[in-house]
Specification:
Blueprint lengths: L1 H39 L1 H27 L4 H29 L1 H20 L7 H17 L1 H35 L3 H8 L4 H41 L4 H11 L5 H18 L1 H31 L3 H42 L26
Helix pairs in contact: 2-3, 2-6, 2-8, 3-6, 3-9, 4-10, 7-8, 8-9, 8-11, 8-12, 9-10, 10-11, 11-12
């Protein structure tokens, strides 16, 4: 008998494991199909994602205008969209105009830097003379001529990327306007369209997801502000010109993972090189590396983990995994996607654990004591 009981338990455990494995495979298959569909529709999903992120950043202003000043939804959304465009244009002006005003100084610095490089290369240990430089230039020109078709293809690809970026930005701005205008009416409409319990669960998850996206955008903006302040302070101490445009560029590019930080750092080091020399350029490079390492490994995981309810190690692993799977876009979306998965999992867990308590078995009341005929003793 004990042997047969153990065999039955083993069969039951194997059956349960097989059912769970089959369910897991079905879930993974559905996830793969969903990702494949998203990949095919990425030209529409990507502007939608950008619009949602921008909406979480600008919604507090639109909500203030609608609730405190009783503005019409279309008027509030239109004003916020226009203000956002003005701020973006102002940021571009603050970057471009100072650079244009000091373009002559920068050009002179580039010429002097090239001259110093030639003088250094002509001495020991390289001993590269003008004839050698001319030979290298001729070789480079010949190589460029041989790769002319490839360069044209790369140029056309770059132009297509730029055009696609402009179209995505315009579409995202239009979607942001409609989200700001009609966003509060979406969840009630969605609740009316869904059957049964979905009418309650899906809007609840959507509300929590919206709050999570808002926390992500605000934390990313705060991290970008820290980068801009510390790097700008370091550039000011070293004496590099164009501190304000470089700090503003650092803040804007902080929203673009990996490439944004590399681009802003490269521009800062290049300007320090052509205006201040090699020593100051190396100092600026060291400052940028230290700040970005602190931001990527300390500030960002701590701030985002606190705002999104994720552990700092989870944030780091999510960014690493997203970058490995989908490059720059994966790094950008890794943290909010991980936070949304955490929101859905927490909600499902709470719903599954929130069962009504089982009724306790009825206990018959204690029988009342029989009245005693004798008087109680006073002893």
């Amino acid at each position: 008998m004990p042997g047969s009981l153990n065999a039955d338990k083993t069969k039951s455990a194997l059956r349960t494991t097989a059912v769970f494995s089959a369910q897991t495979l079905v879930v993974l298959l559905l996830a793969y199909v969903a990702l494949w569909v998203m990949g095919k529709a990425w030209s529409v999903i990507w502007p939608l994602v950008i619009a949602l992120l921008l909406t979480t950043l600008t919604w507090p202003v639109a909500r203030f205008l609608r609730n405190r000043w009783n503005w019409k939804p279309a008027l509030a959304a239109g004003l916020v969209t226009v203000l956002f465009l003005v701020l973006m244009a102002g940021a571009v002006v603050l970057i471009v105009v100072p650079v244009a005003n000091q373009s002559g100084e920068l050009a002179d610095g580039v010429v002097n830097g090239i001259q110093q490089l030639r003088e250094w290369a002509s001495g020991p240990p390289l001993n590269i003379g003008d004839d050698d430089v001319s030979k290298y230039l001729d070789t480079a020109v010949a190589e460029l001529q041989n790769r002319a078709s490839s360069i044209v293809n790369y140029t056309l690809t770059g132009l297509n990327t730029v055009v696609s970026g402009v179209v995505t930005t315009v579409l995202a701005l239009f979607l942001m306007f409609f989200f700001l205008k009609d966003g509060p009416r979406f969840l009630p409409w969605l609740s009316r369209q869904l059957p049964g319990r979905f009418a309650t669960d899906v809007p609840a998850v959507a509300t929590r997801s919206w709050d999570t996206l808002g926390s992500f955008v605000r934390s990313q903006a705060f991290v970008g502000l820290l980068d801009a302040v510390f790097i700008g302070l370091g550039l000011w101490i070293v004496g590099v010109p164009l501190v304000l445009p470089l700090a503003l560029l650092t803040f804007i590019t902080a929203f673009i993972p990996i490439v944004g930080a590399l681009f802003a750092g490269f521009v800062a080091v290049l300007i320090a090189l052509v205006t201040q020399g090699w020593v100051d350029a190396l100092i600026v490079l060291a400052i940028i590396i230290v700040v970005q390492q602190l931001e990527g490994n300390v500030f960002q995981p701590m701030i985002q983990s606190r705002g999104l309810g994720l552990h700092a190690a989870v944030v780091l692993l999510a960014v690493t995994l997203g970058g490995g799977l989908a490059g720059i876009i994966g790094s950008l979306l890794a943290v909010p996607v991980a936070a949304l998965i955490s929101v859905i999992y927490t909600y499902v867990r709470d719903q599954l654990s929130d069962f009504p308590p089982e009724p306790s078995p009825e206990v018959p009341p204690d029988p009342e004591p029989e009245p005693d005929d004798e008087e109680p003793s006073m002893v």
